[in-house]
Amino acid sequence: MADVKNILLVGVGGQGTILVGKILSTGLMDAGYDVKMSEVHGMAQRGGSVSNQVRYGQKVHSPLMGRGEADILISFETMEALRWLEYLNPKGVAVINDYQIPSAPILMGKREYPQGVLEIIKSKVKTTVIKAGEIAESLGNAKSMNIVLFGALVKGMNLTNIDWEAAIRKNVKESTADVNIKAFKAGMEALAE
Amino acid sequence: MKKLLTGNEAVAQGAYEAGLIYAAAYPGTPSTEILENIAEYKKDIIAEWAPNEKVALESVIGASIAGARALAAMKMVGVNVAADPLFSFAYSGVNGGMILVSADDPGLHSSQNEQDNRHYAKFAKIAMVEPSDSQEAKDMVKAAFEISEKYGTPVLFRMTTRVCHSKSLVEIGERKEIDKKPYVKNVQKFDLVPAVSRKLRMELEVRLQELTDFSNETDLNYFEWNEKKVGIIASGVAYQYAQEVFGNTASYLKLGFTYPLPIKKIKQFAAEVETLYVIEELEPYIEEQLNAAGIACVGKAKIPKMGELSPEVIAKALLGKEKTLIEYDGSSVAHRPPVLCAGCPHRGFFYELGKKKNIMISGDIGCYGLGNAPPLNAKDTCICMGGAPSIGHGAQKVFNKADEKMRVVATVGDSTFFHTGMNSLVNIVYNRSNTITCILDNRITGMTGHQDHPGTGFTLQGMPTKALEIADVVKALGIDHIKTVNPLKLAEVQEALDWALALDEPSVIITRWPCVLKKQSVRDKSEFGEYLGTCKVDADACIGCKKCINTGCPALQFNDETKKVKINPVQCVGCEVCLQVCPVTAITRVGE
């Protein structure tokens, strides 16, 4: 299935990876692709590590990708990028949010937040680091951090010919649509830099 | 029109289109969203949460007997609870078509075991279908109702986590109203006394023979001929994985109708291909039946029977192929386990309970299972839903007989109490053990994402209903010693635990406070008020003793350099549990 593209979104429960997966997959569907998306519910919602896989192409069979297969890894949290790095194709692209959410062992002082995550990843694959939290905040809505990352993803996968503004409007509250579209554009620019 | 749906959404859509009239379930991952989505069709379908899976299935059986198309949904362990009516209703057979959805969880994403419920179809002697994606999930619901009514069999609709929770494209259709079948009293079919069952037992074998013939003929089991060097038999999501790995380099016998198996068709397929692989997730359910029929195949000798399959696992097992991976040292990555939320009402209770010595904590299924993790460490056992009080009772009896100074504290949630915890509590009263039962009433079914239950005052379809008061129920079950406490008030919790430990009779402590994530009802708001403000650490006063950190609240972080604690104001809801444990009153409440 060489024509199938693999996108891996990872982060922490509550960061809005699922919404991005939803906008992404409905947009791809409307553009005529076959799409499969896989996410795991349940325990992961309570602040656990979450992943969301989107696969698209002419015909997609498996909802799951394997390790070494993601064309792009979008990590909503810094440490999570390292946890999921083995899923990235060595020729793929990593887009990492410079945003740390310490996990329970770190909060309790039992473990340290890993040092040099970005340097490790940069030394292995083509990497873009984005301060999506700061960008979102500067646009007036810290919660649209996920959409900033979505913009970077669209650029990174060269999917800019799809009408994403419409897809965003379809999936977010009307009151936040404008700021989310700004966030989306800012994300696209962030990757271009 | 096409929509991107999860398998669960597709089942709901298919059931709606197929003229479903009645559905019931008890929430359980990965099945929960099936009923939540069916419930949206308020005008056409009655959809209900039942207190447990047995009650759900029994209600659905009643609806079928009355003549309606009916569907029950549950996670795989729920089918264990519902097995009693299932096995006997297989003898009766249906009036209106009946489907039991079993959502299995290979890989144990959120379950206590990894059982393969395909065995239930063979065990109970009922038909089984297995969709491999969302379109099939929708189509097979329709097919299953037709099979059910044509042959009289209940149908086991077997899904797995990846089918339930993966999204794929589905063609949406219209609802086709199916006339309810007339109810005709028929004791020779529905009154299972031994004389009737003996006769139905023979009819069941005849039905299975008819279903075997159907299995060999139906398009649900189909060939896909490509190269014949490798032939693959697969069902469910394993078929999609096989396609991913082998594409058109292999031929396929795709099985959608998997009990009874189409042995004739399988023999025909086996005769055409050089090497026959059976690719199935979990147990060698298909493989064993092929072996019994004398059909040579390769299955679990190469493919793992534990955990989830994936294209990666299959490619490695059968072709020895592995992708090149990025090599790196990921050992610095810390675990990120799920935790009780900031402001979770269970935290205060577990903080106090975890301090008690010489107790065994008999836990149960739900968010409060997360009380097991450090630093709370407040759980010894958890076996099955509703089992905490009865498992606790048995242990307590033995401790008492052996004269060990151990006390058992059972913890059970509100929804879990109504599930089967009530029966367990009756046993404690009846057989007189001094087991302490703590009912952690957070006013909702929490872990599965906020479903109503008999104590919340609302039905699945949003109708106001009588809210059972747990304290009244407990009293009626024969418990004489009952205390209701606010779990956010540590002194109250401590006092209640000491009170219960001093009693030599069964007691119940109810901790009553809503889940911090719950959308509060009007009644909740008037009883509990709303969270206001947050807690803040005065850095000058903080002595870095980590007492507050030991509540395990994710809003609190200990800084190794400054040796002080900081509270994340975005996460903090101002529950004040940390404030109460601080020995130097460095934590205060701000922003009310």
Automatic annotation (TrEMBL), chain A:
<dbReference type="InterPro" id="IPR002869">
    <property type="entry name" value="Pyrv_flavodox_OxRed_cen"/>
</dbReference>
<dbReference type="GO" id="GO:0016903">
    <property type="term" value="F:oxidoreductase activity, acting on the aldehyde or oxo group of donors"/>
</dbReference>
<feature type="domain" description="Pyruvate/ketoisovalerate oxidoreductase catalytic">
    <location>
        <begin position="13"/>
        <end position="189"/>
    </location>
</feature>
<dbReference type="Pfam" id="PF01558">
    <property type="entry name" value="POR"/>
</dbReference>
<dbReference type="InterPro" id="IPR019752">
    <property type="entry name" value="Pyrv/ketoisovalerate_OxRed_cat"/>
</dbReference>
<protein>
    <submittedName>
        <fullName>Indolepyruvate ferredoxin oxidoreductase beta subunit</fullName>
    </submittedName>
</protein>
<keyword id="KW-0670">Pyruvate</keyword>
<dbReference type="InterPro" id="IPR052198">
    <property type="entry name" value="IorB_Oxidoreductase"/>
</dbReference>
<keyword id="KW-0560">Oxidoreductase</keyword>
UniProtKB/TrEMBL annotation, chain B:
<keyword id="KW-0249">Electron transport</keyword>
<feature type="domain" description="4Fe-4S ferredoxin-type">
    <location>
        <begin position="533"/>
        <end position="561"/>
    </location>
</feature>
<dbReference type="InterPro" id="IPR002880">
    <property type="entry name" value="Pyrv_Fd/Flavodoxin_OxRdtase_N"/>
</dbReference>
<feature type="binding site">
    <location>
        <position position="542"/>
    </location>
    <ligand>
        <name>[4Fe-4S] cluster 1</name>
    </ligand>
</feature>
<dbReference type="InterPro" id="IPR017900">
    <property type="entry name" value="4Fe4S_Fe_S_CS"/>
</dbReference>
<dbReference type="Pfam" id="PF13237">
    <property type="entry name" value="Fer4_10"/>
</dbReference>
<feature type="binding site">
    <location>
        <position position="545"/>
    </location>
    <ligand>
        <name>[4Fe-4S] cluster 1</name>
    </ligand>
</feature>
<feature type="binding site">
    <location>
        <position position="575"/>
    </location>
    <ligand>
        <name>[4Fe-4S] cluster 2</name>
    </ligand>
</feature>
<dbReference type="GO" id="GO:0030976">
    <property type="term" value="F:thiamine pyrophosphate binding"/>
</dbReference>
<feature type="binding site">
    <location>
        <position position="548"/>
    </location>
    <ligand>
        <name>[4Fe-4S] cluster 1</name>
    </ligand>
</feature>
<dbReference type="InterPro" id="IPR017721">
    <property type="entry name" value="IorA"/>
</dbReference>
<dbReference type="Pfam" id="PF01855">
    <property type="entry name" value="POR_N"/>
</dbReference>
<dbReference type="GO" id="GO:0043805">
    <property type="term" value="F:indolepyruvate ferredoxin oxidoreductase activity"/>
</dbReference>
<feature type="binding site">
    <location>
        <position position="578"/>
    </location>
    <ligand>
        <name>[4Fe-4S] cluster 2</name>
    </ligand>
</feature>
<keyword id="KW-0004">4Fe-4S</keyword>
<keyword id="KW-0408">Iron</keyword>
<keyword id="KW-0670">Pyruvate</keyword>
<dbReference type="InterPro" id="IPR017896">
    <property type="entry name" value="4Fe4S_Fe-S-bd"/>
</dbReference>
<protein>
    <recommendedName>
        <fullName>Indolepyruvate oxidoreductase subunit IorA</fullName>
        <ecNumber>1.2.7.8</ecNumber>
    </recommendedName>
</protein>
<comment type="subunit">
    <text>Heterodimer of the IorA and IorB subunits.</text>
</comment>
<keyword id="KW-0479">Metal-binding</keyword>
<dbReference type="InterPro" id="IPR045025">
    <property type="entry name" value="HACL1-like"/>
</dbReference>
